[in-house]
Two-component system response regulator CreB
Amino acid sequence: MPHILIVEDEAAIADTLVYALQAEGFATTWLSLAGEALERVRQAPFDLLILDVGLPDISGFEACRQLRRFSEVPVIFLTARDAEVDRVVGLEIGADDYVVKPFSPREVAARAKAILRRLAPRELSPREASGIDAPANAAFQVDLERHRIHYRGQLLALTRHEFRLLQTLLGQPQRVFARERLLDALGVAADAGYERTVDSHIKSLRAKLRQVDPAAEPIQTHRGLGYSYDPER
């Protein structure tokens, strides 16, 4: 049974979320302070966080920044703000989705189910099950079991989103992936309007690859289309 931590200081909102999530088969824990939630995540695993942006101790955005220093647990933000910049910032700092108040608790439950379904481990092919999904002489070596990628023999320090993006690109060299398809790889609904966050993650990925090989440009931009991996670059 997936366990969801709800961090919301308004009891009425939290109660409706607890009811809707438990009706869908989730276990829930409710806390009203971000600091307490961060400590709880350090102590016990959760499958998903539903995190209000406007909390009384620290903001949800700051809480997510601190969370990402030690955990890659998926996060859905709850907020009364609907500006595009807030949605983009939320996703860039590591959230998986963004729900604007007032909202339907059933919609939040559906989004939680969709995120957990996308992030669920898939059945590995015999080749992937061996642990390394790349030829020994390739520039990239993907360790699916440990969620690690080596580039030219060096381990990359990747976030969960960066790992999934790079894994998707490496899986089909030369294929141009639209931003919507890459969002799907991150577990974000393609219709959520968050295409710009893909650009931010790609920029971060490129910076980490240049630290290993400043002259190489394996991730190619196709204006108006998306991104691809070119093993020759």
